[in-house]
C-alpha cells in the first residue's frame, strides 16, 4: 500500500574539494566502482581478480554509511537503494544496521534514498518487517515524522504503511508514539503524504484494540474530512477505516455527533461522480457501502442513510456488472429494508424485480457452470441470502407480495429449493428462503402459486408434488437444523388456509407428522412453540383437522401440554421472559387446538 517514490538524482562534486577518506573508505569506494563496472561490462572484459560480489559491495556500502563525510553517506544511501534490487539480495541484521544508521542523518540527500529503500524492504517480506522493528526502525521513523521535506514524509509514511500491514506491528506503531504525527499529517498539503498517512491509519484500524486510540486521536473527523479528497486512494482508505470503526457499537454511537457530514460523504462516494472515469471507482464505492452497511446495524442509521439519498444509487449499482460492489450494495439494502419507513422507497425504485433478477442470474451461474464459480461460491450464496432477506423485509403488504408474484418471484424461489445436490447450498440460504416464503404465503394468490405442482415425479404417494413448495418444505423439516425447521414449519402453517395445501397435506401427512412429533418432543421451547402454532392453524381448518387426531402420538402430546399450567411471566427484559412467554403461548395454542378439535 505504501508508496515511496520521491525523485532521486546523483549529487556531483565538481565545485567542491575532494573529501578526505581514510583507508577503509578509499577501499570501499574502489570496491563499489568495480562493482558498478561489473554490471556495465561483460565478465570477459574483466580479470577474475577484479570481480566484486554482492556481499562485498554490501560490506563496502556499510563502511560508507558510517563515514564522517556527508558525500560518502549520500553515495552509500544511493548505492544501498540500488543494491537491494539486485538478485540474491537478502536482508539480515548486518545488512540492515547501516541503513538504520543513515536514518539518523538530517541530510535530505541521505534520507531520501534511505527511506525509499526501507519502504521497499518493508513491502516485500514479512521477515524484513520483523528485522526493521527489532533494529529500532519504528523509533527512527517516528523521529522523521517532523521532517519538513514532503519527499521524506511521503517515504516515511509509506514505510509505516508497509510495516503496519503486519498484525504484530499494529500495536507497536501506536506504542512508539507515531499516531498523533500520522493524524496531523492527514492535513498536510502534499497529497502523497496524506495518502500514505491515511493508509497507515487504515491498517491500524484493522486491529480492534487500536480503535480506541484512533478515536481519541481525533481520527473520526479526519476520515470524514478525507472523504471529500481529490485523491481516490485517500478516499478509499478513509472509507475503509470508517467501516472498520463502525463495526464496534460504541463507536457507531460516537459517530452520531458527526452523522450529517459522515453520511453525506459516504453517500457521495457511492454516487461516484467525483471519480467517474477512475478505474478505482468500484473500490471506493465498495468501501463506502461497507461503511454504511456497518452503520446500518443500528435502526437510527437505517432511516438516516435512506434520507441521505443512498437508495437510488444502490439500486443503480444492482444493474452493473461489479460483483464485489453489488454484494456490498445488496447487503446494505438488506439492512436498510429492516426499517419499515424505507419500504416504500425501495419498492418504488423497482427493488423487487432487481433483486429477483440478481438471484436468477446467480442461480444460472451456479446451475450451468458450478466448476467455474468454486472460488467465489461463498459470495454467490451470500448474494442470494441478502437478496432473499431484503425481499422478505419489504413483503409486508399484499401489494408488495403481488409485485413479487408478478416478477416471477415464486418460480425463482422454487429454483433455490431445487438446486442440484452438487451445488451444496448452505442451510442459511434455505433458512432465509423458508422465512421469506412464510411471509409471502400470507397473500392468497402467492400462496396458490407456491403450491403449484407440475412435475411428473416417480410413482408413489407424493408423485407429482415434487415442485410444490409444501413438498420442498416438508423435505427440509428433516434437516435437524432448528432455525431451518422452525421457518419451514411457519411457512407450512401460513400455507394451510389454502384448499390446495390441505389436499397436499393429506398426501404428505406421514412425513409431516413425523417431523412435527419430533418438534413436540423437543426440549427447546422455540421448537415446541412453532409446532403447536402450526398445528393450531391445521386445527382451524375443518378439512384437515382430523389429521391431528389420526396420529395418536401427536394428539396425546397436545392433550398433555394442554394440562400444563404455564409459569407466570417475568418482567419484560428479564432473561427468563422470552422463555416464559413462549411457554404461555404454547399453553394458549394447545387450548385453542383442543377447542377446535371438539367443534364438529
Automatic annotation (TrEMBL):
Its main location: membrane. ARM repeats lie at residues 94-132, 136-178, 177-219, 218-246, 309-348. It holds the Pfam family Arm. InterPro entries: ARM-like, ARM-type_fold, Armadillo, Vac8. It comes from the Eukaryota. It is a lipid-anchor. Belongs to the beta-catenin family. Coiled coil: none annotated. Keywords: Lipoprotein, Membrane, Repeat, Vacuole. GO terms for molecular function: protein-membrane adaptor activity. GO terms for cellular component: vacuolar membrane. This is Vacuolar protein 8. It is found in: Vacuole membrane. GO terms for biological process: nucleus-vacuole junction assembly.
Amino acid at each position: 500500500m505504501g508508496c515511496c517514490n520521491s525523485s532521486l538524482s546523483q549529487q556531483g562534486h565538481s565545485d567542491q574539494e575532494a573529501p578526505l577518506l581514510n583507508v577503509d573508505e578509499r577501499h570501499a569506494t574502489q570496491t563499489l566502482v568495480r562493482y558498478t563496472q561489473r554490471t556495465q561490462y561483460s565478465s570477459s572484459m574483466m580479470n577474475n581478480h577484479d570481480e566484486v560480489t554482492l556481499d562485498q559491495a554490501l560490506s563496502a556500502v556499510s563502511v560508507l554509511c558510517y563515514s564522517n563525510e556527508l558525500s560518502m553517506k549520500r553515495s552509500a544511501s544511493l548505492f544501498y537503494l540500488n543494491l537491494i534490487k539486485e538478485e540474491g539480495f537478502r536482508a539480515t541484521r548486518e545488512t540492515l544496521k547501516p541503513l538504520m544508521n543513515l536514518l539518523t542523518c538530517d541530510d535530505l540527500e541521505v534520507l531520501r534514498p534511505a527511506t525509499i529503500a526501507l519502504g521497499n524492504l518493508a513491502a516485500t517480506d514479512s521477515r524484513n518487517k520483523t528485522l526493521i522493528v527489532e533494529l529500532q526502525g519504528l523509533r527512527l521513523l517516528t523521529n522523521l515524522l517532523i521532517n519538513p521535506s514532503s519527499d521524506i514524509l511521503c517515504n516515511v509514511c509509506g514505510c509505516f504503511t508497509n510495516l503496519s500491514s503486519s498484525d504484530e506491528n499494529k500495536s507497536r506503531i501506536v506504542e512508539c508514539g507515531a499516531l498523533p504525527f500520522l493524524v496531523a499529517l492527514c492535513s498536510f498539503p502534499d497529497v502523497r503524504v496524506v495518502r500514505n498517512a491515511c493508509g497507515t491509519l487504515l491498517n491500524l484500524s484493522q486491529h480492534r484494540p487500536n480503535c480506541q486510540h484512533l478515536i481519541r486521536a481525533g481520527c473520526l473527523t479526519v476520515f470524514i474530512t478525507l472523504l471529500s479528497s481529490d485523491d481516490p486512494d485517500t478516499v478509499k482508505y478513509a472509507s475503509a477505516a470508517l467501516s472498520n470503526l463502525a463495526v464496534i457499537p460504541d463507536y457507531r454511537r460516537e459517530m452520531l455527533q458527526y452523522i450529517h457530514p459522515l453520511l453525506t460523504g459516504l453517500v457521495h462516494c457511492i454516487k461516484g461522480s467525483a471519480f467517474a472515469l477512475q478505474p478505482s471507482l468500484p473500490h471506493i464505492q465498495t468501501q463506502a457501502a461497507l461503511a454504511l452497511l456497518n452503520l446500518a446495524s443500528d435502526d437510527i442509521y437505517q432511516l438516516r442513510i435512506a434520507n441521505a439519498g443512498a437508495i437510488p444509487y444502490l439500486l443503480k449499482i444492482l444493474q452493473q456488472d461489479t460483483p464485489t460492489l453489488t454484494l456490498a450494495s445488496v447487503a446494505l439494502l438488506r439492512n436498510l429494508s429492516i426499517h419499515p419507513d424505507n419500504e416504500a422507497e425501495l419498492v418504488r425504485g423497482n427493488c423487487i424485480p432487481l433483486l429477483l433478477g440478481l438471484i436468477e442470474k446467480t442461480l444460472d451461474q451456479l446451475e450451468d457452470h458450478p466448476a467455474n464459480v468454486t472460488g467465489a461460491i461463498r459470495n454467490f450464496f451470500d448474494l442470494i441470502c441478502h437478496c432473499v432477506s431484503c425481499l422478505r423485509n419489504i413483503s409486508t403488504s399484499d401489494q408488495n407480495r403481488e409485485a413479487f408474484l408478478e416478477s416471477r418471484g415464486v418460480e425463482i424461489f422454487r429454483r433455490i429449493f431445487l438446486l442440484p445436490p452438487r451445488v451444496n447450498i448452505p442451510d442459511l440460504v434455505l433458512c432465509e428462503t423458508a422465512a421469506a416464503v412464510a411471509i409471502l404465503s400470507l397473500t392468497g394468490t402467492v400462496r396458490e402459486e407456491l403450491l403449484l405442482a407440475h412435475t411428473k415425479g416417480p410413482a408413489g404417494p407424493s408423485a407429482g408434488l415434487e415442485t410444490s413448495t409444501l413438498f420442498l418444505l416438508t423435505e427440509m423439516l428433516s434437516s435437524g437444523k432448528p432455525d431451518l425447521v422452525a421457518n419451514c414449519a411457519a411457512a407450512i402453517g401460513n400455507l394451510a388456509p389454502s384448499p390446495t395445501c390441505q389436499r397436499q397435506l393429506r398426501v404428505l401427512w406421514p412425513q409431516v407428522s413425523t417431523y412435527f412429533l419430533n418438534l413436540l418432543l423437543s426440549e427447546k421451547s422455540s421448537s415446541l412453540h412453532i409446532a403447536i402454532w402450526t398445528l393450531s392453524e391445521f386445527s382451524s381448518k375443518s378439512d384437515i383437522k382430523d389429521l391431528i387426531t389420526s396420529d395418536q402420538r401427536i394428539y396425546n402430546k397436545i392433550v398433555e401440554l394442554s394440562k400444563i399450567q404455564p409459569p407466570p411471566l417475568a418482567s419484560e427484559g428479564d432473561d427468563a421472559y422470552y422463555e416464559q412467554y413462549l411457554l404461555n403461548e404454547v399453553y394458549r395454542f394447545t387450548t385453542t387446538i383442543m377447542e377446535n378439535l371438539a367443534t364438529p
